[in-house]
Amino acid sequence: MAILTAEAFVTQVQQGVALFLDINPPQIYSKGHAAGTYNFPYHRGQWGEELKRALNGQNPPVGLFANDPSIIQAAVGDAEHAGLSVVFTWDKGLQSWQDSGLPIERVVDITVDELHQNLHDFVVIDVREAYELRAGTVPGALHIPMGQIQSRVQELDKDRKYAIICQSGSRSASVAGWMSQQGFDVNNVVGGMSLWLGARHPVERP
Question: Whole-model pTM above 0.70?
Fold first, then answer.
């Protein structure tokens, strides 16, 4: 595994060359994370293969961020076993990252009830995959899968206010963090469609 310094890797992330994954649980990620990271929580099992499938044939340089060295070690092994290239790791958590003068982001959260009450104020972007939409979508939501958001961001208007939703709130937190970095006014819908459906808010079906 080639090792880059934090500064060198951050530059690659900012240039869109590298993929930076925060593998902490969503509840940790949502409180703050290294700028440019996507949340892809680590779990024992097929995590590396799941990441490979999510990358859909791409194999960018990957960096991994977590609070626990043992989790980083396990994730590196899984990623490399799946044929992915891990070039940077950080296992000391967010405070150490911030203390080193490296950039962080905090995602603005919104509940499903708040979104329902103020739906006319937002452009809702559903970042789930197409097959997930069969269960229903927020009325009027724009569908842009997470993997397409960077290539389609030019379709979006920075004068509008966005609410990002997925199934549980993990992918949407990652997309909201990235969009915030690009200068968008964006909120993450906590609990995603799981809580929206659970609250019996209205849905549209394709």
Answer: no
Dmax over CA atoms of the chain, in Å, equals 49
**Residue 183 CB partners (closer than 8 Å, separation 6+):** 158
DSSP 22-63: E-S-HHHHTT-EETTEEE----TTTHHHHHHHHHTT----EE
**Hey, what domains does the chain have and what are their CATH numbers?**
6-105 (3.40.250.10), 109-198 (3.40.250.10)
Orientation angle between helical segments 47-55 and 69-81, nearest 10 degrees: 60
Positions marked catalytic = 166
In degrees and rounded to multiples of 5, residue 104 shows phi and psi of -125, 165
pLDDT tens-digit series, residues 68-123: 999 999 999 999 999 999 999 999 999 999 999 998 887 789 999 999 999 999 99
Q: Are 160 and 185 in contact (CB under 8 A)?
A: yes
Beta strands in 91-174 (DSSP E): 104-105, 109-110, 123-126, 142-143, 161-165
